[in-house]
Design goal:
The protein has 129 residues and is mostly beta strands. Strand 2 and strand 3 form a beta hairpin.
Length: 129
């Protein structure tokens, strides 16, 4: 039988996750793992409400990395702690109308262009039905 967490435990787990990566970085990646843009996480990492963590970034807009080339699609993201260790991977990236973890107006990134994240949330894994 799968494990099911109560609301208070979900909140505690998300808070611990946020605290571990606060002041780290969020990296947008292509499907081939090329880093396309790097965002700094705020010193507190964001806010927790129930089972949802809303990331707070140092800036919502950054410049596309050199590896982006011309029009490379952001397909996923990962979060590193302040020491540079990947702590969270497999985050989804999509357009503003999607249900992705990270929402953008444009997922096509070119080196040197402005890259903006409109919304960034991570939700505790859903309990099995």
């Amino acid at each position: 039988m799968p494990v099911i967490y109560d609301a208070a435990t979900k909140t505690a787990r998300m808070t611990a996750t946020r605290n571990q990566v606060a002041n780290g970085t969020l990296e947008l990646q292509s499907s081939a793992n090329t880093v396309l843009a790097i965002f700094g996480l705020s010193s507190d990492g964001g806010t927790i409400s129930g089972d949802t963590w809303t990331l707070v970034l140092d800036a919502n807009t950054v410049t596309g990395e050199g590896g982006a080339g011309t029009g490379t699609t952001a397909a996923k993201a990962r979060i590193k702690d302040s020491g540079g260790t990947v702590r969270i991977s497999g985050l989804t990236v999509g357009l503003s109308s999607s249900s992705a973890d990270l929402k953008m107006i444009n997922t096509s990134i070119t080196s040197g262009q402005s890259v903006t994240i409109n919304s960034a949330t991570v939700q505790h894994a859903a309990d099995p039905v």
